[in-house]
Design a protein that fits this description.
It contains 23 helices and seven strands. Bound molecules: iron/sulfur cluster (3 copies). One iron/sulfur cluster binds next to α3.
Length: about 425
């Protein structure tokens, strides 16, 4: 029996196929792409990637392709395309500036998912680990959930058994950036009672499925479990630190749940900005500082939801001693930190160099501190943690400068 050839079109939407045919090679996106900033690797540019995949589709699906080419894509071509596809932080900036409106962020994600089904799969560090871990631990990280709050939940913070406000830190905060979760719960508890899911019930949100390193098949089980656990706690507002989690919970969970969620998912900075405006969130300590805010890609250019750009600025604006200055590139066009899209695991040297570019942009504002609010940003900018360290990463780790970097909730919790 002959094996069915890999189908490059199957599973892509009509819109995505039209987008593959739409790139004019105007090269506008190259000026904004963080990878191009630090590598000049044109094979890893959006137009190169779009035209390469379009060529695969044409070669294997059109009469012209079959008549005038081999009608096949070689393993070598596929491997080189995979390298290009994963040299991308999924920051979405190319889509934001694309002159013909290609939604590149969704396109890269769809093509990553497609490629995972092919003979080349996804990069080795992400190939099996996240899914195997999910089946064992219900999170992409290789640790049991049961003791996870012990890592970061301070002893003096009390969780209500049930409450209308529920906090979700997401696996990224627990295992990678616990400082963010600690800051968040300190701020929440200063205003009133809140609850969290029991740790072994607090599964992953499902974000790894989007990045192409997991499986869609687990989503229905995951979402139904989480929605029930949240409802059982009486939660009406589900407050989330990680912007990727928020995007998934708010915009993807209803699809798998089959109806509207019985609670409102929202970003921690949105709730805190509202509370600060209403006078519920009070700070007792004084500060005199110039601060710049890095809009994480997942907030400025989310996969599915609306950008969250004003809330962190409104929140900081309620504190008299803080002077907020924006970087040249901020809001929807903020620079990427290089920490997401699997970059720290797959291309850690490129990731570290991108982080440094953002750091230098923040320095040009003259700020004392750069704040952000996303686990990969925190890792790449503040703790500078990479799965595969190398000399470039080491240089970034040792880069010393008076500009401080912090998570916005950790920073504000110190002012309570
Ligand atoms: S998503 Fe970001 S990193 Fe990836 S190609 Fe576009 S601009 Fe470059
Ligand atoms: S901006 Fe859009 S059309 Fe122009 S090269 Fe980039 S992806 Fe292609
Ligand atoms: S972004 Fe959501 S998914 Fe990532 S690891 Fe986080 S909790 Fe799990």
């Amino acid at each position: 029996m002959t094996e069915k050839p890999f189908d490059f079109m199957e599973g892509l939407t009509k819109k995505e196929l039209i987008e593959l045919d739409s790139c004019t090679r105007c090269n506008e996106c190259l000026a904004w792409c963080p990878i191009q900033d630090v590598t000049d690797d044109r094979d890893a540019s959006p137009p190169a990637r779009i035209h390469a995949y379009k060529d695969f589709v044409e070669r294997t699906h059109t009469l012209k392709g079959k008549l005038f080419s081999s009608g096949k894509v070689t393993a070598e071509e596929l491997k080189s395309f995979k390298d290009s596809l994963w040299k991308c932080a999924l920051c979405g900036t190319c889509g934001e500036v694309c002159t013909v409106g290609i939604d590149t962020k969704k396109l890269w994600w769809s093509v990553r998912r497609k490629l995972k089904e092919s003979e080349v799969g996804c990069p080795e560090p992400l190939e099996k680990g996240p899914l195997q871990n999910y089946h064992k631990f219900r999170s992409p990280f290789p640790f049991p959930l049961g003791g996870k709050y012990k890592i970061w939940l301070p002893d003096d913070i009390e969780l209500a058994d049930k409450a209308e406000i529920g906090y979700y830190e997401g696996c990224g905060c627990t295992w990678d950036s616990p400082q963010m979760a600690e800051g968040a719960v300190r701020l929440l508890s200063s205003v009133g009672p809140f609850t969290m899911l029991d740790p072994d019930q607090s599964w992953c949100c499902g974000f790894p499925q989007l990045t192409g390193s997991g499986e869609w098949s687990i989503m229905a089980e995951l979402v139904n479990h989480m929605v029930k656990a949240i409802a059982d706690k009486g939660i009406k507002q589900f407050v989330i630190s990680c912007p990727m989690c928020l995007d998934i919970v708010k915009y993807l969970w209803p699809y798998f749940y089959g109806e509207e969620l019985p609670f409102e998912p929202l970003a921690i900075v949105e709730l805190l900005a509202e509370w600060a405006e209403e006078g519920k969130l009070k700070f007792t300590k004084q500060i005199e500082e110039t601060v710049t805010y890095h809009d994480p890609c997942a907030m400025a250019r989310p996969f599915m939801g609306k950008p969250i750009i004003d809330a962190p600025r409104e929140l900081l604006g309620t504190i008299p001693g803080i002077k907020l200055v924006d970087m040249d590139r901020h809001g929807k066009l903020s620079r990427c930190c290089g920490g997401a899209g699997g970059m720290r695991a797959v291309n850690s040297d490129v990731s570290a160099n991108i982080a440094k570019e953002l750091f230098l942009e923040a320095k040009r504002t003259g700020a004392d501190t750069m704040l952000t609010n996303c686990p990969p940003c925190y890792l790449n900018l503040a703790t500078r943690t990479h799965a595969a360290p190398n000399s470039v990463v080491e240089e970034w780790r040792n880069y010393d400068d008076p500009l401080k970097i912090n998570d916005i909730t950790q920073y504000l919790a110190a002012l309570l």
